[in-house]
Description:
Layout: H1 10-31, E1 35-38, E2 44-46, E3 53-55, E4 58-62, E5 65-69, E6 73-74, E7 97-109, E8 118-119, E9 125-126, E10 130-140, H2 142-161, H3 173-192, H4 200-211, E11 218-221, E12 246-254, E13 256-257, E14 262-266, E15 273-281, E16 286-291, E17 307-311, H5 313-318, E18 324-331, E19 336-341, E20 354-358, E21 374-375, E22 385-388, E23 391-395, E24 400-401, E25 406-412, E26 417-418, E27 439-448, E28 453-457, E29 460-462
Parallel strand pairs: 1-29
Antiparallel strand pairs: 1-4, 2-3, 3-6, 4-5, 7-10, 7-27, 8-9, 11-23, 12-14, 12-25, 13-24, 14-21, 15-16, 15-20, 16-19, 17-18, 17-20, 18-19, 22-23, 25-26, 27-28
Amino acid sequence: MAQQGRMLLEADLNEQTAIHIYYLRKLIIDAIGRCWRAGDGFALGKGDSVNEFSIKAGRLYVDGLMCELASAATYATQPFWPVPGAEPGAAVDLPPAFLVYVEAHERHLSSVQLPALREVALGGRDTATRAQIAWQIRLMTEEKVSAILKQFNRLAEIRKAHPGPYVYREGKLDDFRNKLEANARQLGAQLGAAGPGAQACAVARSFLECWDQIGALMRARARFESRNLDPCAMPADAQFRSRDNQLYRVEIHRGGAAGEATFKWSRENGSVEFSLHSVKVANGGAVTAAIDALGHDRRTGLCEGDWVELTSDAFEFAEVAPPLGQITAIDRAKRMLSIKIANPAGVDFSACTLLRRWDQTLETAPDLRDDGAIAVQESSEGRWTPLERGVQIQFVPGGFYRTGDYWLIPARVETNDVLWPQATAGKPDAIAPHGVERHRGVLGFGVKGAAETTFTNCACRVDPQCDH
């Protein structure tokens, strides 16, 4: 409740809106279901060839999120293309049998990505950002089901060797593992058969629910209990030491298990970003690019030596790690950057429209890789990975990390500490990523024949009570 005479912050309004949205989405789930379409919206049908299928215009609700398609599309012409695994510009080749599912999430858009947010009457200032519901129609094959199961079985062995805070709806790890294996076998059998059986939709829903529970956990801390330690042995960075409050963002750069996954971090929640254009690649991997501004100061600007990523919507939708590079020179009069990229081969830099600064350096991360990212190292003991100014993180063993997943760590000068949930034992709690929160729903099954591809629709259909 708003209090008389107290200041009103934008956080108060944002939280009130988030509460309303939360209850509305839960009401939609409780009243109708987790995945349903309004009328014919998002119904699957045959396309002009055996290697494409149509998606009807309309609305689909996934965990209360409204996915909207203004006009009919095909798999390859859906709005948030490309999907993970799709080759840009390559023709789609549908597998013989496949599960069609939707994955939706809420993404943040700034005025750099959406210039229409700027108000000309205010001199081009942006007054707010936006949240957009992005959705993708994706395919699941028998091979992918098998790969997910093998992947989790490897992680399960690590989790058993390091019993940790992972929580499953089934209670115990072995019970969850058995359920996942059973669902994978049944779904694989449905996809390997000539056509889906009567229970195919229910099996697919159960498999996706299990898949939702596979993820990663992380802890964060700045100041920690030292009563049982020799004060002379206390590290100098044992607490948050800064003159400014910060919102740290730890984001997964390259996905996978520990050993292949990497991360990057920002003390400004990844908000230091610029519109990117005229990107050119010279011999030796040097990249030159023009940006629309250089920022107002060191906190919001760029300097030589900064690590930046060159990205676009295409990298985000495909869940591909964008290239990271280090700024080597800045022509401030022309707003031109020279950037050294470690591995520029195969990257279409002309498609990069956004430049974002990250704050890891060799001074704060001695194990910084040549590509500018830091390897994910898991630990259940006392080993922590330092960021800066006393802020440390710890990844829990047995996690699977997805490109784009992130954790937020508010750090406060007043307490010389970070705001982080505490476990019952008084140690920082291990929590799932704050985002990206993905929601999945089953749409149907497809079987490719010699002349056409046929479909079995799974999503519930809800028709309006009145037809005006």
